[in-house]
Specification:
heterodimer, A: 198 residues, alpha+beta, Immunoglobulin-like, 2 domains, 5-stranded antiparallel β-sheet, B: alpha+beta, 6-stranded antiparallel β-sheet, 4 helices, 17% helix, rod-shaped
């Protein structure tokens, strides 16, 4: 019982083996052909992709970061003048400029005898309410009025395209009739320029 | 399935927002600059005194002497000033009658005679010797009563921390006989320098100071140099 059964099985095993071997051969040939084909019919193209970010750079005056500032002394009634600086977007993309004012100081800075004679007192100065300013960028008004109100001034979303320069100008004047009350007084404020991408 | 897709889209959106926000922050540039406006000052002192009242005395003026007083006027401010005498007031007061005055025929108790007899020189004494020398600027040389009430523009620029000597000299006061005696009591007056606060004008003047002689107020002022 066992023998024939084994023989039958042996037949089956042999057949399976043949099939497997054949498949293996076909597979190997296919693999070899494929390998050859793959090797022969391959083509490689190489390309370099560079992603360059645009730049946005604000330059005020000749130096970056800015060194330009306004420092005026020995002002007196009846005086006037102006200070200008070039605002430049030196980057490669267009931007919007905003200008704001902060940190207003208005100091008495000591009392001279003629100020004392007028009853002037420390610590608040009188120059801010007598210093008239006309601040413009390329003719557009940024602030117009006395320095005492400068914190309400400013401009936003002023277009400043790549490579474009504009002139920022601060004109100042002190009325002739102001008199001794402003002697030695000091006014100061900070101007902040911000350029953001359009 | 729909929910998964929505969640996926939302996630992508949030990532895009984060990236965009980051990009926005990076692409801005800020420049900050300072401004300082300082007013100058003009401040005149006489003999280094700068109070409301500056006083010195000169007593017992008498015929025959030639008293002079040297004032040093300084600019202790920060800008150049132009010195002038803004106005002159001649006050002639009797200050009581003495016996010699009465004998000399002075009967007016309200009007003095000193200005009729007193000669005065006013000059800028550049070399500081107290006398009119070559180059000194003489502004007045004559009887006190002829002084111009409008004063003088001395046209004298004084630099910050600079100064100039101004001499007031009385002279030629001995040849008028009875009139000299009529002027007698005035010799007992003192000479004062006072601050003249009323003359501060609406420009960068400096506390105009008044030189007060018995019969004379000289009002100095220093204004900004024009032009």
């Amino acid at each position: 019982m066992i023998g024939p059964q084994n023989e039958e099985k042996g037949e089956v095993v042999r057949m399976d083996k043949k099939i497997l071997v054949s498949l293996l051969i076909v597979g190997l040939v296919g693999f070899a052909l494929g390998w050859g084909t793959y090797s022969q019919f391959s083509d490689t193209e190489t390309t370099t992709t560079v992603f360059t970010a645009g730049s946005l750079n604000l330059k005020v005056g000749d130096d970056d970061p800015v060194k330009w500032k306004i420092e005026l002394s020995e002002l007196l009634p009846g005086c006037s003048g102006s200070q200008s600086v070039t605002i430049n977007n030196t980057g490669t993309i267009n931007g919007n400029l905003s200008i704001s004012f902060s940190d207003l100081i208005d100091k008495e800075n000591g009392l001279t005898e003629p100020e004392l004679a007028l009853g002037d007192t420390e610590p608040d100065g009188e120059l801010a309410e007598n210093l008239y300013l006309n601040i413009t960028i390329d003719g557009t008004v940024v602030y117009q009025g006395y320095a005492s109100g400068i914190l309400s001034g400013g401009i936003t979303n002023y277009p400043l395209n790549a490579g474009v320069s504009k002139t920022f100008k601060v004109e100042y004047s002190i009325d002739e009739s102001v008199g001794n009350i402003i002697q030695s007084d000091v006014v100061g404020f900070t101007i902040t320029f911000v350029l953001t991408q359009a | 399935m729909n929910r998964k897709i929505l969640v996926g889209i939302l996630a992508i959106g949030l990532v895009a927002l984060a990236v965009g926000w980051g990009t926005y922050s990076q692409f801005s540039d800020t420049e900050t600059t300072e401004t300082i406006f300082s007013a100058g000052s003009l401040d005149l002192t006489i003999n280094d005194q700068n109070g409301q009242t500056v006083t010195f005395s000169w007593t017992n003026l008498r015929p025959g002497n030639q008293p002079k007083y040297k004032l040093t006027l300084k600019n202790i401010g920060t800008i150049r000033g132009n010195l002038s005498i803004s106005n002159i007031v001649v006050v002639s007061e009797e200050n009581g009658l003495t016996e010699p005055e009465i004998e000399a025929g002075d009967t007016s108790d309200d009007e003095g005679e000193l200005d009729d007899v007193l000669n005065l020189r006013l000059f800028l004494d550049y070399n500081g010797d107290g006398w009119i020398s070559q180059g000194d600027k003489v502004f007045f040389n004559g009887l006190v009563k002829n002084l111009p009430s409008t004063g003088f523009d001395l046209k004298e620029p004084i630099e910050p921390n600079g100064g100039v000597d101004f001499v007031v000299e009385l002279y030629d006061w001995w040849q008028h006989g009875n009139v000299d005696n009529q002027a007698q009591t005035h010799t007992k007056h003192n000479i004062h320098i006072q601050a003249g606060s009323s003359t501060i004008e609406n420009e960068f003047n400096v506390s105009a100071k008044t030189l007060q002689l018995p019969i004379l107020f000289l009002n100095f002022k220093m204004g900004k140099v024009e032009g």
